[in-house]
Amino acid sequence: MNKKVLVFAESKGSVLRQVSLEALSLGKQIAGQGELIAAAFGSGADGYVEALGQHGANQVWTLSDDRYNRYHSDLYFHAFVQVIQETNPDVIIVGHTANMKDVAPRIASRFGYGLITDCTGVEFEGEEPIYIRPIYAGKAFEKKRFTSSGAMFITIRPNNFKVEPSPTLPATVPFQAEPVDLQTVIREIVLKSTGAIDLAEAKIVVSGGRGVKHPDGFEPLQELASVLGGAVGASRGACDEGYCDYGLQIGQTGKVVTPDLYIACGISGAIQHVAGMSNSKVIVAINKDPEAPIFQIADYGIVGDLFEIVPLLTAEFKKKIA
Ligand code: FAD
């Protein structure tokens, strides 16, 4: 294999997203002996070069401009187009994140590229990558390949690809963005408090449903999540009741998560919820109803009151971690 792969290194705040490193590791596999290029935008871009090099990037295109510190559809689109025109990649890989879900179809359409979204795996038939993605709300998987010529554009779901360090000393290519005629203007950014750890990238998620019964019912879940170094999520039932913010919702109309461990507390297991968490590596369900559908997909089930069980688990984990 001898391909030129471009990865967009997305950051949140001043931190490089884990999925960007996953994208680089996959990019390295696909590039083979070819070139692995990363692009980073925002005033922190230069600070990411070393980490990107540690994960195989041969070249890092940096746009050090504070207007790019936060995602803006038009700005990112035009800067991304510039990098593609300059580098002419065979394959483009980005995270399947809210921002990249916005910009990827625009780019693919602008250049007439094929786009395979939300990939959770890749297989090789000879040198040709075959991309695996979930369909029917995670009930089945399909395998897709590109048949057209032109660059192949894929988005990858966070937490599904191994991060493999592959140290290089990348060349840095600083560039300035061409002036953009903005179609949209961001007037205000309202930050919702959804916890320090990004839910979509968390390795452990403790989720609460309508069974928590009250906003305060999330406190024991929060405590368990903190002890485990995880994030708190929720079902729509809990969000609809006003127990927590919709930013925590997991499922078909919420976030899709694939942590190593998902602990569902007081969640019945409706299909729309399961669509957002069924690919978690290990699922633990705590529910007082032994017939709750969540037990059908759980690896471990605990029948009982979450207000008794969650504090017991927290206490046990505290002992183990201390
Ligand atoms: P319930 O179904 O009410 O379940 C509560 C559970 O808590 C019960 O199983 C009960 O036995 C248990 N329980 C109660 N008290 C305790 C206790 N003390 N200890 C232990 N267990 C207890 N839902 C989502 O989650 N995400 C989505 O993205 C989503 N999208 C949707 C999109 C559409 C178009 C539609 C129609 C629905 C969608 N829903 C979604 C809603 C979904 O159908 C369910 O209504 C919702 O998931 C139910 O939430 P729940 O499991 O918290 O509540």
From TrEMBL:
The keyword Cell membrane does not apply. Keywords: Electron transport, FAD, Flavoprotein, Transport. Its cofactor is FAD. FAD binds at residues 210, 235-236, 249-253, 266-273, 287. One of its GO terms (biological process) is fatty acid beta-oxidation using acyl-CoA dehydrogenase. Binds 1 FAD per dimer. PROSITE patterns: ETF_ALPHA. It comes from the Bacteria. Residues 5-186 form the Electron transfer flavoprotein alpha/beta-subunit N-terminal domain. Belongs to the ETF alpha-subunit/FixB family. This is Electron transfer flavoprotein subunit alpha/FixB family protein. It comes from Paenibacillus validus. The lineage of its organism: Bacteria, Bacillati, Bacillota, Bacilli, Bacillales.
